[in-house]
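3.2 Worked example (two chains)
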Amino acid sequence: MRSHYCGDIEENLIGKEVRLCGWVHRVRDLGGIIFFDLRDRAGLVQVVIDPENKPLAEIGRNLHNEYVLDITGIVRARPEGIVNLEMKTGKVEVLASKIDIINRAEALPFQINEKQNVSDEMRLRYRYLDLRRPEIMQNFILRAKIVQEIHRFLSGQGFIEVETPILTKSTPEGARDYLVPSRVHKGQFYALPQSPQIFKQLLMVAGFDRYYQIARCFRDEDLRADRQPEFTQLDVEMSFATARDIQDVHENLMRHIFRELLQVELPNPFPRLTYAEAMSRYGSDKPDLRFGCEFIEVKDLFKDNALVAFAEAAASTEKRIVALCVPGGSTLSRKNIDAYVELVGKQGLKGLGFLKVNDKAIGLAGLQSSLLKFMTEDLAQKILERTKAQNGDLLFFAAGDSNIVNVAMGVLRLKIAEDLNLIDATKWSPLWVVDFPLFGEVEGGFTSMHHPFTAPIDEDPERLEQAPGEALAQAYDLVLNGTELGGGSIRICNEKLQSAVFKILGMSTETAYAQFGHLLNAFKYGYPRHGGIAFGLDRIAMLMVGADSLRDVIAFPKTQSAQCPLTDAPSLVSAEQCKELGISVIPQDKK
């Protein structure tokens, strides 16, 4: 039908006839001359109706927002004085010669052409309208381009795209599975994949060498702003590769995507921190490096201090004392500080000391602190030297169990940066976090920090079983601006080591073969060394478009309660369907 997209009408088309299709974005009647903006996915163009053209003028007077039109007209330059340089098409307009109304629109539940405070529930119930908004539409255009660049880059690097099953076997990978009952095998269930993990490892056994897939994954878990029950990930596996090989390929991929789509040059190489360093310096395994405020260890300065909590922490190998220097933080009120004390208290930290640097040149008299009565001139001077604090800065102090101090101060660091606008929103700060613990301790045993197929740095099974809590993993996460984009690892490549890991996790040989026999059997037939990585495509898109939520880059997302207001899913099914599947449903307690 159409000859051009609305957003592509530019000066090179002046004098030519075009045919456009789209939605009425806004109508303006200026004393007989009618203007309206026509919108499609490419953008807007201004259409003009000559008042001398009576039939068209009559149509124009009855147009409303979101009517769907098919128009024909001549492109002309806008008159001097009404050029709009903020629009791509702002130097031209289309003088309409024919207008066909394809469909009319009733009054909308919310407006497309203006910003409104619309609830998420309303936006998702009428998602097809929400997606018409130009800023949301552009999110999905950029997302599509990200996928195109991924295919282009990885194909050029010799990777083979392979699709893995959606209906698969339920296995314990940390989150709960979505289960699918089988009609043919009554009483038995498939599971929707949490990831293609097992299959991509088996593809390496098969000799594909370099695999990738834009994979749909499912996890039945609580939702957050950066999480959805179904999501898309870039899934990659490489044979005969070291961790650094895998990281280098994907650094280059990220640099390529940002260069091509945002004209941004990411650093080369990306910085690297061990998990221990990240927690010690930033209190997070996904630190935001767009601002400073690193933790400063001051434990040695508080030995024999009169403040009991600090003296006890200084004497313990399991505890630490850190300072956090906030540039310009002395402007914070006592009310602000009390709110921060409450914040860290929720993380288990029992107290938070502070020190305002008003005039460091005059010693204690120039300081304001909840700890001042426990400080000497010498201690205050050493603290100022260690922290490099300047006049107008604020120091926070935390003492206690190392893990609690790290996490609590990490939360505080981010909150203060947000409150005081310390984050450079124009900056991109990627980071590799490496050398994670292999296991996390839980009541009665251990759990995998990543997944049970991750290889330890020390691959000796006997030493691993002797000290599993000390083992480090050949695992790595890519972090960007404080958001984990994804992670991966070198995989276990021999049966003895894999069996030792299963044993540490409390899994019997029988259970291991029942759950993962298809993988364990593959060890017998020539198993290559390999590793891989997976990135949250939705998270990458969210950061690149500057959105605050995954819902702005997923076409039809779920709510925080994992529901779809548009389709009212999940929903009940009939008794006949349940009978055919061989399942029964426990009635929900109406209370």
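3.2.1 Second chain
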Amino acid sequence: MKKIFFIADFFKKDLLGGAESNDAVLIQHLLSEGYQVEKVKCAEFSTDLLNKKNFFIISNFTSLSEAHKIELKNEEYIIYEHDHKYLKSRDPSVFPDFIAPPDQIINQSFYQYAKATVVLSKVCKEVIEKNLDIDNVYSIGCSLWSDEKLDFIESLRDAEKNEKFAIINSSNPIKNTHLAVSYCRKKNIDFETIGPCDEKELLVQLAKYKGLVFFPKVLETFSRISIEAKLLNCKLITKPKLLGAASEDIFSLSGKELMANLRNRKNKALKLFEKLITKEVDPVLTDKSITVILNCYRRPEYLEEQIAAIRAQSIKPDQIWVWVNYHEDNEDFDFSKLNVDRVINNDYNWKYYGRFAAAMLADTKYIALFDDDTIPGNKWFENCLKTMKRTPGIMGGAGVVIEGKQYQKHTRYGWSSQNKHIVRVDLVGHAWFFEQDWVKYLWMEKPFTWDNGEDIQFSYCCQKYGGIQTYCPPHPKEDLEMFSSLKGYQYGVDDKASSNARNHSLFYKQRDACVKNAIDNGWKTVLMEVG
């Protein structure tokens, strides 16, 4: 077992900060699991430690010399990122969309050479990836508290509360105590400042208040005090855009439910660190886990070819599922012969939305859906992931940009038009690729009709409720391996196609109505925004 050197500017005995508290929990866990861990301050780092036999965990490293950063590039190390040390200002919130100009980026190669960078929240992962153009980042979706600390917080949860809001009295300008005080006075909110005091006493005081007012001045990677307030069943008045924790789905929870989820995340995070150290997990591939859901209705004869094309992807899926809508054309097909992980066989035709319901059950980062006439090139998933890195959103194989309020007036992109560059579109079809967490937005509204328009509804609801746009990845004619569909014109134009199998005019009238409904309820199409 390799010796682990834990490198940081300070440790908990030197400084009582969030980063140091996080580090202390991780170090104690590794020691309890039998790892040999030695703490080394950045200012005391020595080249004697560089011998290829050691493993390094780099926490805050502002006092680590440039020479030592260069030397570490030949070693095995991961970065445990607590703020934003890839920026001169250490604060991306001062830049539009959190994207800094190139002259503000620092330490880029140090992050690129790391085996992995572990961040505390989803938004921090997105921001660092965009700024540094790296794909070795993993989000643990939490901060680390010791079990003893969480037990202590739990013991305070039912404390009797007054009718006042608390404000943390901090001399640290990024905690923005002055703004919180000004806000309360302006809104006539009854408040008191608490602290400074030690950690436990601060929690004892906070537990007595109705809520916490906290307006950070920078993008907080997770904000321990905000989550601690919610664990104590305190209301939280804050700026969600500047809280990394707000980008996690657990942010809507509080009290006992939040505590259970947080403990689970913490345990998973600690196991992740172990796996990174022992090389049991590749953070790049883990964070690109994919569940594929194929849809079978009237074309079961194409399933084996679809599955072979998916198994041949340059980035392999974790799971392949087949969602079967009942039709007499598939009732005699032997699904047991397929090389898949799940067959969900229905005795009813759930039409277009059933497969999206199945996506709610997946436990991977991404979902890939395919129509039954769609055979992808073997770099389709890779194409989607690279596109998502530049423009996060729903990816699809047949993109549509709508003119006005009618579907029938539109421009197509994707496999049929062979766009060379990424194109933002209003909706996509034939093949979808998206984060599993986004499928929940589809169900925020009852579909306008169950008989048509799931592609319209999905892009509309994701934009309205999640701020998520839709894109068509590049389909360059010189590289068919990047294509979402290789046989669309061959398989998709028979009499089994939805647009051909019934009244053609009715099909498109329904789609026009779906588009109008979405626009009337807040959907902003590409041309509307351009105009």
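3.3 Remarks
The domain at 147-258 is CATH 3.40.50 (Rossmann fold).
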